[in-house]
Design a protein that fits this description.
Elements: H1 18-33, H2 45-56, H3 72-81, H4 88-94, H5 98-102, E1 105-110, E2 115-120, H6 122-128, H7 141-144, H8 148-155, E3 159-162, E4 174-182, E5 189-198, H9 206-240, E6 247-250, E7 256-260, E8 272-273, E9 279-281, E10 287-292, E11 298-302, E12 313-316, E13 323-326, E14 331-332, H10 335-346, H11 353-361, H12 367-381, E15 386-388, E16 391-393, E17 397-399, H13 400-409, H14 413-419, H15 431-449, H16 454-462, H17 470-479, H18 486-503
Parallel strand pairs: 12-17
Antiparallel strand pairs: 1-2, 1-5, 3-4, 4-5, 6-7, 6-11, 8-9, 9-10, 10-11, 12-13, 13-14, 15-16
């Protein structure tokens, strides 16, 4: 293999003839996708793993390129919302000489690999449009297969992809280098910068150039954040002048810039909105109001909470150790109370007595039973925490199963599995709980299966909920290449599960 041995993220070293290398890779690609591949050493392992993810997602080598997903109006809106908007000028200034010298295309995408800005040599850009490398196109691995932009986002690491290392044959005439851009304060992945050109212009130094430009963009974002913090501090100091109310100054991400009279605070606050009047609560239950400031920051004004004010609570209902915990730290583990709170948390709009009875007991539910349960919960939470016409929670609620659901919806199955301690209220036979339990577990399971990630599949099979998942076991065998020492164990696991299921069909 003629790649840069010291750096697996670079496609090949400077001494390799790109045309000769491209011909070799095309032959390997043709054999691989015709089913005659094997384990050629001429393909980097990170590329081979990306090929497996791409095929599992349904990408075909013969498709014309990436789909164009964003309409002109959607593209305009995405640009306006993009946190990279303020540093586009910085990025282009660092790469301004590439258009004429190397005929490179400079592309900037969001965190979902949608191209938002594409500039460069006019003739090169026109050629690239033939494979839909254009503004509004979706170049994630799941839609466009292995490519520097999508693979850099999938791995959260700078990477270079050359010629037939791309899954889609239409992209074989090109070479590209991409580097992710992160929020310097939170570490959140904001997008990616990509340099694309004809394969004959390939150079390993293109990748560090993309990396340095991404670092320059992050530095510019950090400087902008510091300048905005100073601007917000000036506004906060003017706002608190002559006032005694405790307050905290927050930036747009909830990081605490300054505070007065608030006592000990975490570095970052997650405020929960309690109602339409703008009232909010801190994680410790203290209430107040938020005053937005120009530029995206805000002032949190603390107010003294009355004795009868409801406190937030957290529902921990995954696995065997289920409980509800108030902001005061008090806990309750009664199954019927937990079922009632879970169902009300699923219906923030409120429910009638009949609806609650049906959700909790099915056709055998009785109104008198529901009223008794609601009475017990109101005694525990406080009368103001649960309204009765209709039955509706007025208390800020955090729930572990909704966090798992959010992570699955966000395309973060690894984090979702980490948060999934077990089935939702496994001891409950309430119809709505049973349905929600099955839906949560199946959505998590499917999100894991579609990744074709051997490590994640192994973690799922090691989890009690995935221990008898034959489809996952077979998927793990399929994604592990021949010669991988894990493949024999995966094959044995699949066989053992199949035997167990044949003896216990239920």
């Amino acid at each position: 293999m003629s790649s840069a041995a010291c750096n697996p993220w670079v496609a090949m070293d400077v001494t390799t003839d790109p045309v000769v290398r491209s011909r070799l890779l095309r032959r390997v690609h043709e054999r691989e996708f015709a089913g005659d591949g094997g384990s050629s050493r001429d393909v980097r392992e990170l590329v081979r793993e990306s090929w497996r993810r791409s095929l599992a997602a349904g990408v075909r080598p013969d498709q014309g390129g990436a789909p164009v997903r964003l309409t002109p109006s959607e593209l305009e809106g995405a640009r306006e919302r993009s946190p990279l908007g303020p540093v586009i000028g910085v990025i282009h200034s660092k790469l301004s000489t590439l258009d004429a010298d190397a005929r490179q295309i400079v592309a900037i995408a969001d965190a979902d690999a949608n191209l938002l800005w594409v500039t460069g040599d006019r003739e090169t850009c026109e050629r690239a449009r033939e494979m839909h490398f254009e503004e509004g196109a979706a170049w994630a691995e799941g839609t466009a297969g292995t490519n520097a932009l999508g693979t850099a986002l999938a791995l959260d690491h700078p990477v270079q992809i050359f010629s037939a290392e791309h899954v889609i044959a239409a992209v074989h005439p090109w070479t590209c280098s991409a580097a992710p851009i992160h929020d310097p304060d939170t570490g959140e992945l904001l997008g990616v910068i990509d340099l694309t050109a004809d394969l004959r212009t390939h150079h390993p130094h293109t990748l560090p150039l993309a990396e340095l430009t991404a670092l320059a963009a992050e530095a510019a974002l950090r400087l902008s954040s510091l300048q905005m913090a100073e601007h917000l501090r000036d506004r906060w100091e003017a706002a608190i002048s002559g006032r005694r109310a405790p307050s905290a100054l927050l930036d747009r991400n909830g990081w605490v810039i300054a505070a007065r009279g608030m006592g000990e605070l975490p570095r970052r606050l997650e405020l929960t909105v309690d109602g339409e009047d703008g009232a909010t609560s801190l994680p410790d239950g203290r209430g107040g109001a938020v005053e937005p400031l120009p530029g995206g920051g805000a002032i949190f004004w603390l107010r003294q909470r009355s004795r009868t004010s409801p406190s937030r609570f957290r529902l921990q209902l995954l696995g065997q150790d289920a409980s509800v915990r108030l902001g005061t730290g008090r806990r309750d583990r009664g199954l019927r109370s937990l079922e009632l709170l879970a169902i009300l948390a699923m219906h923030p709009e409120g429910m009638t007595t009949e609806q609650l009875a049906l959700a909790l007991y099915g056709e055998r539910g009785k109104a008198v039973t529901i009223r008794a349960q609601v009475h017990r919960v109101r005694m525990y939470l406080g009368a103001r925490s649960l309204e009765t016409h209709p039955y509706r929670l007025t208390v800020p609620v955090e729930a572990d199963w909704t966090e798992v659901r959010r992570l699955v919806s966000a395309g973060r199955p690894r984090d979702a599995l980490r948060a999934y301690r077990g089935p939702l209220l496994p001891a409950s036979d309430a119809p709505e709980i049973v349905e929600a339990r099955a839906l949560l577990e199946e959505s998590l399971r499917r999100s894991i299966l579609t990744t074709a990630d051997p490590d994640l599949l192994s973690k799922w099979l090691a989890h009690p909920s995935g221990a008898d998942d034959l489809a996952a076991a077979r998927a793990l065998v399929a994604v592990l290449p021949c010669g991988d020492p894990r493949r024999a164990a995966a094959t044995a696991t699949a066989a053992a599960i199949a035997r167990r299921l044949s003896h216990n069909p239920a």
